[in-house]
Write a structure and sequence with these properties.
The chain has three domains: 39 residues, no CATH class; 101 residues, Macroglobulin (MG2) domain (Immunoglobulin-like, Sandwich); 291 residues, TIM Barrel, CATH 3.20.20.140. It is an alpha/beta fold. The protein contains 14 helices and 30 strands. Helix 8 runs parallel beside helix 9. The strands form eight sheets. Strands 21, 22, 23, 24, 25 and 26 form a six-stranded parallel β-sheet that branches. Helix content is 22%, strand content 30%. Strand 23, helix 7 and strand 24 form a beta-alpha-beta unit.
Length: 601
């Protein structure tokens, strides 16, 4: 996924959801602590001097008889204080104590369903008190505490909360949001990665939440936006996918007030502000800042939804050919369609262009027909699916809310021993190629060949690899023989992938990779897409999510999480692993990985 999870063993894991194909997995050291303290917060008050006796201030703020009649004990002796004199000497404003309730809800950002058992942390934005409660079965929560409020003063701290822009990456524009607590002059600026100022805007703003739009200016790349207010500066980064030219177009728009910071005006009192953070182990935490006495409704995204999810192998194009199967419709047969890809949170899918070996005499022409069928599906579903040939095109399609489809030619026999055919297929949209399928070609030996350990490439095979490198076609070694993989690594200058394979040490099968092969691929910066095919995962041909995780774990322990990906082989097997019945089930794998000990980085 290219969410990033890190492995509990401390291995260099960077995505959990396990590089859901790109996602990186890091292990959790511990679960979120489910605090349920019910402590009352100490009364707070504004004072005109730093050495004012806090105990006396607390007593003054507490409910009870008139201040003038209040008795205090000093060194054991009763003393009647002239409260008016005391206040005039030590306190410049009157202090009022009252109960304040903050309440709200926690919901799923995608389904709007209530999130039960979320930990809601309430913290004083001045850096003081902190407490927490849990959301109930309806996703609701509330917290009541006693606060001291001071006439005529604002409890809002001198700080600015700068939020991440959305969308990100973006093209042609994005929105930057921020909150200011104290009225003053605010300046926002955008710089490129060289530190050059692209645009800036300044204005006097009152307390509240604001947004400002940035439209593309200058070349694509990493940009940094910062805001300065009241001597405080905050900076974040954003990714611009396309340039806006070198002219005066684009840049920052106008400041727009999204909401004012609420205050309590009863008896002239102004409330404080609190930071509300909601989190649950399977969701990304999120925060809002609210005034006391108001509500905070927080919408959380699951770890899976926030991850970048790419699957390295899917055979659904084979189902489309000649059957009238439509990707845009939800089906109850096969494993793949756009509605289920959406449900599965898939951001990018490698679609296999596979021609059965019996069509070998016409494999090149058949491959071209499959590519045209894919392009037809893209045209029919242009609002949901797009074709990507480069990484930035994947990001661009995702920024438009579309699934990126990438074409992988499965089986080098489809080029029919012609480098010109290879170049033509690349021009038609092929971005990756599996060197062999189950049967060898005249120039490369497959994993199922009895010569797998001793015979690899011919000289023409080396020319194929050099041509693929020159065209930036990704080399896929699933199905490929042991010696052939060694020869590939000796020739190519680029990382390679195994798009849909398992671990030989867990299941002796010619389609799986040995430890030395896994290490060799990782050393070159490649990845192994763990397959969901039961017969490749277990000896009894039965597998479930936990079986898949066993293969993921093995690779993580051997080389680290950065080299694990997902290569389901959906619509190329039947039945798939239990719990992973179709493309809509990818979130179940992420959930199982989190439960297993992986966590989002």
């Amino acid at each position: 996924m290219t969410s990033h999870l890190r492995s509990a063993s401390g291995s260099t894991a960077r995505s959990s959801s396990v590089r859901t194909s790109g996602s990186t997995i890091r292990s959790r050291n511990s679960a979120f602590s489910h605090l349920s303290r019910n402590s009352r917060w100490a009364s707070r008050c504004r004072q005109s001097t730093q050495d004012c006796d806090q105990e006396m201030m607390n007593r003054l703020a507490a409910p009870g008889p008139s201040i003038r009649a209040r008795r205090f004990h000093v060194a054991g002796a009763p003393l009647v204080l002239a409260a008016a004199l005391f206040v005039s000497m030590f306190v410049s404003t009157r202090v009022h104590a009252e109960d304040v309730t903050i309440s709200g809800s926690v919901r799923d950002a995608k389904t709007r369903a209530p999130v039960a058992g979320a930990i809601v942390e309430i913290s004083d934005t001045t850096g003081g008190d902190r407490d927490s409660v849990s959301s109930d079965a309806n996703g609701l929560w509330s917290f009541t505490f006693k606060t001291s409020l001071v006439d005529g003063t604002s409890a809002a701290p001198d700080r600015v909360d700068l939020r991440q822009n959305y969308p990100n990456p973006f093209n042609p524009s994005t929105v930057i949001g921020f909150t200011v607590r104290t009225a003053g002059r605010m300046r926002i600026a955008v710089h490129n990665s060289l530190g050059q100022l692209l645009d800036e805007k300044a204005a006097f703003l009152t307390p509240g939440g604001y947004t400002i739009r940035w439209s593309t200016r200058g070349p694509a790349g990493m940009l940094f936006y910062s805001i300065e207010a009241n001597g405080i500066r905050a900076t974040r980064k954003m990714v611009q996918l396309d340039g806006g030219g070198g002219g005066g177009g684009g840049g920052l728009g106008d400041f727009a007030l999204s909401h004012s910071i609420s205050t309590l005006h009863s008896l002239g009192k102004v409330s404080g502000a609190h930071r509300i953070t909601a989190k649950r182990w399977d969701y990304e935490p999120d925060s809002v800042t609210v005034a006391d006495g108001t509500t905070a409704d927080i919408f959380l995204h699951t770890v899976h939804d926030q991850a970048f999810v790419i699957d390295l192998h899917n055979d659904v194009l084979e189902k489309i050919m000649g059957s009238g199967y439509e990707l845009g419709l939800r089906h109850t047969v096969n494993h793949t369609d756009i509605p289920r890809l959406r449900e599965g949170g898939v951001d990018a899918q490698l679609f296999s262009v596979y021609v059965p070996q019996e069509h070998y005499p016409d494999a090149y022409a058949e491959s071209r027909r499959i590519i045209l069928a894919f392009e037809d599906q893209v045209a029919r579903n242009s609002g949901d699916l797009g074709e990507a040939r480069k990484p930035d095109e994947i990001a661009g399609l995702n920024g438009q809310g579309k699934i990126a489809g990438v074409l992988l030619l499965e089986g080098g026999y489809a080029i029919e021993n012609s480098l010109e055919n290879l170049k033509a297929l690349e021009a038609a949209g092929v971005s990756a190629m599996t060197i062999t399928w189950n049967d060898s070609t005249p120039w490369a030996v497959s994993a199922g060949d009895s010569r797998s350990e001793t015979v690899g490439f011919s000289n023409f095979g080396k020319d194929v690899i050099r041509t693929m490198d020159s065209l930036s076609i990704v080399i896929d070694v699933s199905h490929t023989g042991i010696k052939t993989i060694e020869d590939i690594l000796a020739v190519t200058r680029n990382p390679i992938i195994a798009s849909h394979s398992g671990v030989w040490s867990l299941r002796h099968h010619t389609r799986n990779l040995t430890d030395s092969q896994i290490v060799s691929i990782a050393r070159r910066g490649g990845v192994i897409g763990v397959v969901f095919y039961p017969s490749f995962l277990s000896y009894d041909n039965h597998a479930d999510i936990q079986t898949v995780i066993q293969h993921i774990d093995y690779i993580v322990r051997l080389v680290g999480v950065d080299y694990v990906a997902l290569g389901s082989d959906f619509d190329g097997m039947n039945p798939p692993a239990r719990g992973l019945e179709d493309v809509s089930k990818f979130p179940a794998l992420t959930l199982a990985l989190l439960q297993h000990g992986y966590a989002h980085a």
